[in-house]
Amino acid sequence: MLKNPRTKYRPFPPIALPERSWPDAVLTKAPIWLSTDLRDGNQALIEPMDIARKLQMFDELVRIGFKEIEVGFPASSQIEFDFLRRLIEERRIPDDVTIQVMTPARPELIARTVESLDGARHAIVHIYNAVAPLWRELVFQMTVPQVMTLVRESVALARRLTDARPSTDWTLQYSPETFSLAELEVSLEACETAIEAWGASRPIILNLPTTVESATPNVFADQVEWMRRRLARHANIILSVHPHNDRGTGTAAAEFALMAGADRLEGCLFGNGERTGNLDLVNVALNLYTQGVDPCLDFSDIDRVKRTVEQCNRLPVPPRHPYAGDLVYTSFSGTHQDAIKKAFALRRDADFWAIPYLPIDPRDLGRTYEAVIRVNSQSGKGGMAYLLATEFGLELPRRLQIEFSRVVQAAMDAQGTEFSAADIFAIFEREYGLRSTPSPRDCRMRQVEDGGQVQLSAQVLIEEDEPITVEGCGNGPVDAFVDGFARGCGEAIRVLSFHEHAIGHGSRAQAVAYLELCVGEEVLYGVGQDSDIVSASLKAIVSGVKRARARGQTSQASGAASPA
């Protein structure tokens, strides 16, 4: 790094706005939310979503309560076009949901985009072009008048094409891309040009993106308030912002922008997106919630939302991620645990929420407070997971730690004593059948030449002396084994997450597999250990199925014992 970075980097100039009002504003209502998980988020993935994952994501966004969803870039590829057509033709879009699609300011792409929306009830056509000097002069080699001509002609074309399809309720969204790096006068002229070409009496969304976050969030708020003042004479505009997170201040920039007069936020669930990501809509929504503002989005089952996003994006949500990470409601510090315990003991249900170290009640999001179990007086900081890792080499995934902690806590409550590391390991072995789960017998696998799938057959012992035959086909051994359960014994199983590691080295090494499974309605873990990773994985599935059946029998027994 340079000793004098000013020789290479220029500080962002402040905005001349001496009578700024946004610092005194208080947020009292939710903005209009636009999810761009299926467009901006999808284009940032290492492996873009296939149709099935896109449909899963779309359905989850609708369930959460999004009324505006950017579903793609239909002019960019046939896959994007076909996905949009499927949404429309299969009538998967609720009447109160408006879909948005994006296109650059290019005539052939605008025409293809409007064509892709044929038959939609409500649609937003999102046209963008870069206006900042760096892009304007170096990338596109255009003058400011040429940029304005491009905006005028592109929006006029969109108006003609949409007017020819009156059965759809059309809205234009115009983005002066790279707004945060452009001269404000140029961005304003581009927006005024788009309004005039679209028609001042027609609804229009003006979207101001921090395409690359390059200044402190208060500067972006000044930019938004500057624009809002000068666009105030237009009655039919919605002012939208699209923050990115290059400086790690995307959430602050979004909240400041709302204070400065923005009506609408664009972003992704948990902040997925290129570089450091888009605005995290979950973060902003729950920030509002903790201030007593209804966000009009439903995150009452945050783990379900997180699982869906992780499955669709094939990217993990970090364990320290605000509100949703696996560790955000866990205190490893004994002093934190003590403060929280004392506050809970004094709290009454009618009280305002005021618990040390917990800005939100985890129960509102479908979570509970999960403190590290106090194993003994010497292990308070390390806890159960630390002892299993250091003493026995078991590196439990965080959600398995939470699940198993409940098992240990129940045993502690029953015996009224503190447990040693050996005690905890014995409970783990018993709960997950580490010693008692046999390997599938007569297990045969072969690769199918056409399609590269695996066919698997095996004998599996779930109940004593009652082996069942499992025969299935899938993308790999685990997928084929799960398929076999569904075929052979009606056991509906989905693998939600998979972790594995080795214990030991060389010929004595053992593989341990941890599979988070959905067995029927039960979400739980199975664990398997073997010298072979495939066998360990199959054992883990058997472990999970046996645990799910045991839970079902327990609940049936308790139900039978209950009075009518």
List keywords for this structure.
564 residues, alpha/beta, TIM Barrel, Arc Repressor Mutant, eight-stranded parallel beta barrel, three-stranded antiparallel β-sheet, 17 helices, 19% strand, globular
Number of domains: 3
Shape label: globular
Please mark out the parts with pLDDT under 50 across 5 or more consecutive residues, or reply none.
371-382
Strand order of the largest sheet: 1-2-3-4-5-6-7-8
Residues in helices, as a percent range: 40-55%
Structural class: alpha/beta
Corresponding CATH architecture of the largest domain: Alpha-Beta Barrel
* CATH homolog superfamily of the largest domain: Aldolase class I
Number of helices: 17
* Sheet with most strands: 8 strands, parallel, barrel
Strand content: 15-25%
What's the N-to-C terminus distance?
A: 74 Å
Mean pLDDT: 89
Number of strands: 14
The CATH class assignment of the largest domain is Alpha Beta
Q: If you compute it from the alpha carbons, what radius of gyration comes out, rounded to the nearest whole angstrom?
A: 28 Å
CATH topology of the largest domain: TIM Barrel
Quaternary state of this entry equals: single chain
Mind explaining what this structure looks like?
The longest helix has 29 residues, at 533-561. The protein is an alpha/beta fold and 564 residues long. Residues 371-382 have low confidence and may be disordered. Helix 4 runs parallel beside helix 6 and helix 16 runs parallel beside helix 17 (533-561). It starts with 31 loop residues before the first strand and ends with a helix. Helices cover 40% and strands 19% of the residues. The chain folds into 3 domains: 31-313, Aldolase class I (TIM Barrel), CATH 3.20.20; 334-431, Arc Repressor Mutant; 441-560, Alpha-isopropylmalate synthase LeuA, regulatory domain (Double Stranded RNA Binding Domain). Helix 7 (184-198) links the parallel strand 5 (169-177) and strand 6. The strands form 3 sheets. It has an 8-stranded parallel β-barrel with strand order 1-2-3-4-5-6-7-8, surrounded by 7 helices. It is built from 17 helices and 14 strands.
